[in-house]
Amino acid sequence: MKGAIKSYLKGMDWAVASNVLVLSFIGFFVVFSATSHNFDITQPWKRQLFWFSISLFVMWLFSRIDYRFWIEASYIFYWVSIVSLLAVLVVGDETNGARRWIKIGILSYQPSELAKLSVLLVLARFIGSKTVELFFLGRLLLLMAMLGLPLLLILKQPDLGSALLLVPVSIILMYVGGVPFKWLTWLFVLGLASSPLVWHFLKDYQKERLEVFINPQDDPLGAGYNIIQSMIAIGSGGISGKGYMQGTQTQLSFIPEHHTDFIFSVVGEEWGFVGCVLILGLYFFMIQRTFEISRKARDREGSLLALGIASMFAVQIVINVGMTVGLLPVTGLTLPFISYGGSSLVFSYAAVGILLNISYANRRPVLVTGRG
Amino acid sequence: MGFLLGLITMAFAGIFLKLFYLQILNYPFYRSLSDTNSLRLIPQRAPRGIITDRNNEVLATNRPTYSLFLVPADVKAYGPSLQKLSELLEEPLSSLENLVESRRQRRKFEPVRLQSHLDPDLIARIEENRVHLPGVYIQMEPERYYPQGDLASHVLGYIGEINEDELARLRDSNYDEGDLIGKMGVERTYDRALKGEDGGVEVEVDASGIQRRTLAYREPVQGQTLKLSIDWKLQKLAEDLMGSQVGSIVVSNPQTGEVLALVSRPNFDPNEFVSGISYKDWNDLMKDKLHPLEDRAINGLYPPGSIFKPITALAALEDKVIDLNKVFLCTGIFWYKTWPYRCHNHAGHGWVNLERAIIESCDIFFNQVGLLVKVDKIYRVARRFGLGSRTQIDLDSEASGLVPNPRWKESTQHMPWFPGDTIHLSIGQGYLLTTPIQMLDVISGLAMDGKIFKPHLLYRILDHNTGRTVFEDPPDLLREAEIVPEDLAFLKATLEKVVSSPHGTGKKARIPGVRVAGKTGSAENPYGDDHGWFMAYAPAEDPKVAVLVMVENGGEGGIVAAPIAKRLMELELGQEVTPMEIPTPGTTPGEAGTPVPTPTAAKGATP
């Protein structure tokens, strides 16, 4: 038993695992600071701790399950997530005019999180299986339909952030998987042409967000307000920050949703340039390691899956941080491992678990017993 | 893959450069924005939704008031400004200092409301001293106002500042410290609809905490309009008829469960709570032995007395222990072994059958029925009508009452069930406890052949701006009490005779040209004179209104309660309302009620 644990720990990709643990650790402190002025001073970080312990278990579990199993079962997950995306539109809890959550007892669950992961799995399988001839147009159209269905359902909620996340990740996987550049260009043109249609789909507040992004001074108390306040918070942090729990912008509740979407503003204000660069560095290192795992993966599916996970994290981080520093529009994506939120944390750790298993498989082929 | 990693590196580099731009190159600029020329969010309270009766008569609205606010971060503690403020407000300096000190760490940029209802004189003096008072400002805000004073106070309830328990309970909702929240009545039940959305202004203040310019404004959104099923005219009449008597009245439409009037006396003026009730007033309310805040209609537990007899009658008929021809002799006193039970008619009714026993409310007939019928039968019939359960009216803290049975008595009193207990129960005394609204459900159930609709006060929720209905509460058939049709037909005919017969106890509820059915009750209780009860519905052929009147220690129901019910039914049915002298307590002494021994005998055991 002891030996098994030892060999398990030895086989672990410590670079990735310790990286996310450090990020989560930092996340607690930031969430605590961001919510400490609230009336119930203990609750959010306590819940975050609860979700973190669940996430740790999930990560361990997923690292022990051969990733081939997820690849094999990818279609099942895909349809489960489609069904739950449909369900959330019917029975979901409405907040701010969007239906994103399903309440099960005291727990809420966000189906778009499951959808992200299952789309990654389906893509890895579809593109990764060598028999598939991607140059064949029919195949490509099937792939488009497979992607389009969850995408439309997510847009319908509407959860613009998750939808925006899926598009570049899919394009990256298709590109790496060998879809000719010509086809991707056509897709891009097609996407551009259909953007007025997407615009039509968007809720008013989302259109407002995009418009305000172009000129934030237009609506300083509404959507532009978030960006301005976030920039003031980050800018006023300076090199070393105002100090932990000392962020006036944060403690003033000027920054809305500062423990979820805008958590990076809290980091910027209280921990300064140094803190921001440290966290960005940790993220970058993790992504770079994940690319490494992808490169060394035992098979094509594993390689694509790792790459998909890496690009998902990368895109999510860039979109979220880009939003808080005023480079990108407000979309409502969380910062992985740091933002407050159960579903997001659990699914992020599940993805890390899968990564760890892929990296295992490269190092210790003995542990892997073929198809799951 | 190298290409991809390159792309990601470029994106990260972009963020890095932007951070460098914000935090290093433009640090002084953003720092000054966050420090010196600070931005302040001044919340503006949303007006609460308006509450009207079913005919748009306004029961609760808002009126403007001037309030004084203080931003702790902008006040220099112990400086001359607090001294000045304490002089102006005539408040001790130490309490202001404590307040500022307590907000040094937490929420120091959020304004604290110091005083509401500023009089113009004080406003002028504060404005004169503006320069000496950084961080202090006056703002007009909407305040709850109940134009009808104490009318329907138990329906409307009152509001107050949210407390810790409520905040913990509503953690995930749109509630925050300092918010006002409904504490009772429909203000509480429908608080979410009434609340609205607070707005705010973003202002720039200079180094001395004085507001320089407004940067942005978000308009508060008024809460939704609540349209109650209450009929203001009927409510007013009910309140007037009740006078200064203690008790309650509930009027409803038995076909829908809509509550048309609900009175509980003594009552209170919800306006007193709006800007925080004073310690003394609160103490007076709490110490009042009559508990004005308690809603007797839904929370008062009473023995129903004779208005319970229809249920005993149904149980006995269903159990087939008597039939309609069965007679018992009432001599005014009935001896069970060595215990005497007296009829309220001391001379005795003579030989009576079930019909006469109901019309003239003979206790001794029902006492003897109680010796024949199984207690569980009475229990089950009472439960069918919802006694012992909440009626689920849309008000908080409703009592569920108690229908006793042998199992209950053994487990709570550790005593066996004695035949005497059934003798008491059969005439609505003993352990039995009901609320007025439950008895309204009983009479509505009889009126509607067993159908009992959930009583409710909400008629509609309207959007404040468009006036469109956004929510409608449809009639909710809550129970269907099973009753043998012949038994029901007999009972309903007999309840009509209670009012129409020359010997009927309810003849004071007679309305010419309208078939009224009802039952009187005078419930023995340990606190003094009998509670006077009357329950009725009309017109008997197609019931449109059900009434329940209960006067605490008012004496005989037929004398104190029936005349009130009559006038309410007259108004609701579009008849001319008979004038009435408003009674004062003590003028109608009730006659002695049922079991003879001391009032405590109602709880005593008679083996």
Description of the structure:
The complex is a heterodimer of chains A (372) and B (607). With 372 residues, chain A is mainly alpha-helical. Chain A has one domain. Chain A is 71% helix and 3% strand. The longest helix of chain A has 34 residues, at 263-296. The radius of gyration of chain A is 21 Å and the shape is globular. Chain B is of the alpha+beta class. Chain B folds into two domains: 40-93 and 110-228, Penicillin-binding protein 2a (Domain 2) (Alpha-Beta Complex), CATH 3.90.1310.10; 232-269 and 293-598, 3-Layer(aba) Sandwich (Beta-lactamase), CATH 3.40.710.10. Chain B has 22 helices and 23 strands. Chain B starts with a helix and ends in a 35-residue tail after the last helix. Residues 586-607 of chain B have low confidence and may be disordered. Classes of the chains: A mainly alpha (372), B alpha+beta (607).
Shape of chain B: elongated
Percent of residues in helices of chain B: 25-40%
Q: Which spans of chain A have pLDDT < 50 for at least 5 consecutive residues?
A: 365-372
Note the total helix count of chain A.
16
Biggest chain pair contact, residues each?
Answer: A-B, 48 and 43 residues
Report, as a whole number of angstroms, the end-to-end distance of chain B.
Answer: 94 Å
Which range best describes the helical content of chain A: under 10%, 10-25%, 25-40%, 40-55%, 55-70% or over 70%?
over 70%
Main features:
heterodimer, A: 372 residues, mainly alpha, 3-stranded antiparallel beta sheet, 3 strands, 3% strand, globular, disordered C terminus, B: 607 residues, alpha+beta, Penicillin-binding protein 2a (Domain 2), Beta-lactamase, 2 domains, 7-stranded mixed beta sheet, 5-stranded antiparallel beta sheet, 22 helices, 23 strands, 33% helix, elongated
